[in-house]
Amino acid sequence: MVYLCRKCDAYVGCHNNSRKPLGIMANKETRDWRMKAHKVFDPLWKSGKIKRERAYGFLQRRLGYKVHIAESDIDRCKAIIDACQNDKWFEELLKTKGASVISYSEPVR
User: Fold this and answer.
1) Which DSSP symbol is given to 97?
2) Spatial distance between the Cα atoms of 21 and 30, rounded to a whole number of angstroms
3) Which domain holds residue 85?
4) Looking at the 3D structure of the chain, how many domains does it have?
5) Per residue in 83-102, pLDDT tens?
């Protein structure tokens, strides 16, 4: 199931067998930025070396606010990408946990 606004092409999917949304409705541009944020952030916890909740905790402490990519707007997605690609704490955490960073050649700002 999804919630959809045909007028602005915004939608959000739902958890399996429920009406509970996975995040906040987003248009195409916002969905694209959320996918980019996931692509640079998710390797940390998907490596299996650190739990997902702990990885989000590190990111939240670094950015100074609660982070949930599915609820992030474009500016927050850019901040997540910037933190994951340019901050030493993230790079060091990845090195110690055996994951790798995905980089984008395009600017994020």
Assistant:
1) H
2) 16
3) 28-97
4) 1
5) 988 867 666 666 665 555 45
Instruction: Using the structure block, give the residue that is written with the tokens 């790079």.
Output: 91
Residue 63 φ then ψ, to 5°: -85, -20
**Nearest residue to 45 via CA among 67, 72, 73:** 67
Domain for residue 20, yes or no?
no
Concatenate the DSSP letters of all residues of 46-77 into one string: HTSSS-HHHHHHHHHHHHTS---GGG--HHHH
3-class secondary structure, 100: coil
8 in a structural domain = no
Position 37 in a domain = yes
- Give me the residue label for tokens 């060091």: 92
**In this structure, is residue 72 part of a structural domain?**
yes
The CA distance from 45 to 19, in Å, is 27
58 pLDDT tier (thresholds 50, 70, 90): confident
